Amino acid sequence: MSYWFDHESQKILKKLITSKRRTWLVTGVAGFIGSNIAESLLHLGQKVIGFDNFSTGHPRNIEDIVAKTAAADGAFTFLEGDIRDRDACADIMDGVEIVLHQAALGSVPRSIEDPRTSHDVNVTGFINILDEARRRNVENFVYAASSSTYGDEPNLPKIEERIGRPLSPYAGTKLFDEIYAEIFSRTYGFGSIGLRYFNVFGPRQDPNGAYAAVIPKWTDRIIANKPVTINGDGLTSRDFCFIDNAVQANLRAGIAQNKKQSEVFNVAVGEQTSLNELFALIKERLALHQCYYDKDAMYAEFRRGDVRHSLASIDRAAALLGYHPTHTIGEGIGVAIPWYLAQTVKA
Ligand SMILES: NC(=O)c1ccc[n+]([C@@H]2O[C@H](COP(=O)([O-])OP(=O)(O)OC[C@H]3O[C@@H](n4cnc5c(N)ncnc54)[C@H](O)[C@@H]3O)[C@@H](O)[C@H]2O)c1
C-alpha cells in the first residue's frame, strides 16, 4: 500500500518527521480521523499514545492500527477513557510532546437532538485537554476545528478571517474551542493550531448509525442496492476532503513552529461538489467494480442546521503550513470504494 507521505510533494515532510522520534497524543484514536493519523505516525517511526472512550469509535480500528504497523515494538499505547474526566486527561499527558486532539461528538443533527452532551464533550472535554497540555507546556497543540464555524457567512471561498454566526449547537461547540484556544494564547502564551476540516471522508469512516456522514452512508446503501435519500434539492455543495489530506495537515501542524499564537487553517481541497454530482460520482466509481445501481435518488427536506454551500480557500494552509492536498475528491473516492467493498465481503 502506498501512503500519502510517499507522494513526491511530501518527501520533505517525511524526512522532517522521521528525523526525530517524538511522542504524540492522539485523542479520538478509535475514530475515523484519529485512527488514520495514528497509523501514519506509526509508519513514520513515531511513538503514539491513543485515547478514546469508544462512544463513536471502534475497537476494530485500534486492532487494525496494531495489525498494520510495527506497534508491537511498544510504539503504540492505547488508553481507554473520557476527555470529560479531568484526572484521565492528566494521566495521559505524561511524556507527550505533541497533541493532536480529535476526540469530539461530530454531527450537526446529533447536536440538535442533544446539545448538552455535544457541549460537554466538545467544549468541556476540549478545555480539559487544552489546559492539561498547557500545564505540561507541550511543544505543539493541534485540534480538530470545523468548517461549520463559517455558519451563515455567504461568501465563497471560505477564508479563515471571515466567519458568520453558527447554525447549530455543533458549530457553536467548535467555535467555542477556537475562542478558548485564542484565550489560552493571549492569557498564557500557549499557542495552538485549529484545523477547520471540510467534510473529510475515506477508509474507516463509519457508514452506520443515524449520524453517518454522506459518503460512507451512500456508498454502503448503493453497495447493498438500497434507496438513497438526498436532503434538499441536491444542489447543496461541499468541499470533500480525502482523509490523507487531513492526516497530512495534522502532521504538518504538529511540527510547525508555533509557540505562542493561536492559528486556524482550512483543511480541504478547494473543489466544490454538489450532492447530485457526488451521488453520480459514487455510482460511476462503484460501476468500475461491477457494482451497478439503477435507482434514482429520492429527495427529502433540507436538514436543519446545514450550511448551503461550502468551498474552502486553502491558500493560508499552503503558505504557512506547506499543506498540499495529494488527493482530489475523485482520487479519494477511488481509494475509499474498494475499502467499503472489502468491508461488505468481510461482513
Ligand atoms: N469527519 C469530518 O468530516 C469532520 C469535519 C469537521 C470536523 N471534524 C472533527 O474531527 C474530529 C474527528 O472526527 P471523526 O470524523 O474522526 O469522528 P469519529 O466519530 O469517527 O471520531 C471521534 C472519536 O472521538 C471519540 N470520542 C468521542 N467522545 C469522546 C470522549 N468523551 N472521550 C474520549 N473519546 C471520545 C469517539 O469514540 C471517536 O473514536 C472531531 O473533532 C470532529 O468534530 C470531522
Q: Keywords for this structure?
A:
globular, single chain, alpha/beta, seven-stranded parallel β-sheet, binds nicotinamide-adenine-dinucleotide
Characterise this structure.
- The chain contains twelve helices and 13 strands.
- Strand 1, helix 2 and strand 2 form a beta-alpha-beta unit.
- The two termini are 22 Å apart.
- The protein has a seven-stranded parallel beta sheet, with helices on both faces.
- The protein has a domain of 233 residues: Rossmann fold, CATH 3.40.50.720.
- The chain is α/β, with parallel strands linked by helices.
- The longest helix is centred in the middle third of the chain and has 21 residues.
- Helix 2 runs parallel beside helix 3 and helix 2 crosses helix 9.
Strand coverage percent:
15-25%
Instruction: Please give the CATH class of the domain at 8-198 and 243-268 and 311-326.
Output: Alpha Beta
Rg for CA atoms: 19 Å
Number of strand elements: 13
Q: What general form does the structure show?
A: globular
Show unreliable segments.
none
SSE ordering = HEHEHEHEHHEHEEHEEEHEEHEHH
Bound ions, cofactors and other small molecules, one mention each? nicotinamide-adenine-dinucleotide
Q: Which class best fits the helix and strand makeup?
A: alpha/beta
Say which CATH homologous superfamily of the domain at 8-198 and 243-268 and 311-326 is assigned: NAD(P)-binding Rossmann-like Domain
